[in-house]
Amino acid sequence: MEGIKSLENKKIPDFEDVVAFHGHACPGLAFGFRASLAALAELGERSEDEELVALVENRSCAVDAIQVVTGCTLGKGNLILPDYGKQVYTFLKRPSGQGVRIVVKWVSPQETAAEQETWKRFSDGDRSPEVMRIIKARKGEKMQEILKADQQELFTISHITAALPEMAQIYPSLICSQCGEKVMEPKTCQRGEKILCIPCAEKD
Ligand SMILES: [Zn+2]
Ligand SMILES: [Zn+2]
Questions:
Q1: For residue 170, what pLDDT is reported?
Q2: What is the whole-number distance in angstroms between the Cα of residue 26 and the centre of ligand 1?
């Protein structure tokens, strides 16, 4: 497990590690990777526990790069996804709330009329081998452009101080009276004598 070992040595994961986690290489992943590197350059080490919090304003491939590179993950609760459909990545340090807001400003170079026509056919549902070959090539080129671009071309970065979300908490488990499965206390519903989990309460 070479990857795991390198994390223990606090090496910053590289783009290959990110692709291994995500499953494919794509422009969105490249944005997430570059934003993560920019954040770590400004704020220091990746997050082993919850010392760093990421607020990601979209649900794109970029999210996976951020989890691998910065250590801000859904599982640890220090990755928050207010989905505004914006390419904006905010990283805050605990306990100070100081951090950076990274806004993607990069626009890909103007495409040829033929490339624009191909994108239109693709978004209209054309998945012919000819269209797929051109789309794949364009995505690959775009990804390389993002990986190689100067940071100033990609992002506007501002230093901010903001309110931190609450730390992840551990709650006791109760047993749902209906299904008999364990459920964390704040997610239970009281129905008379019964304590129910949310799915059982919705069926009740
Ligand atoms: Zn992707
Ligand atoms: Zn239940």
A1: 85
A2: 5
Which one of the ligands is nearest to 18 CA? 1
Phi then psi for 80, rounded to 5 degrees?
-120, 135
- Within-domain flag for 23: yes
- CA–centroid distance, residue 30 to ligand 2 (Å): 41
CA 175 distance to own-chain centroid: 33
The CA 60 to ligand 1 mean position distance, Å, reads: 7
DSSP letters for 16-84: HHHHHHHSS--HHHHHHHHHHHHHHHHH-S--SSSSEEEEESS-STHHHHHHHHH---TTTT-EE----
Q: How far is the CA of 81 from the centre of ligand 2 (A)?
A: 27
Q: Are residues 99 and 67 in the same domain?
A: yes
81 and 177 in a single domain? The answer is no
Q: 155 is in which domain, residue-wise? A: 2-106+149-161
Q: 125 lies in a domain?
A: no
In a domain, 39, yes or no: yes
Two tokens, residue 200: 């059982």
Task: Establish if 193 belongs to a structural domain.
Answer: yes
pTM: 0.82
Domain count, the chain: 2
Per residue in 105-161, pLDDT (tens digit) is: 998 888 889 889 999 999 999 999 999 999 999 999 999 999 999 999 999 999 999
Please give the Cα distance from 62 to 145 (Å, whole number): 16
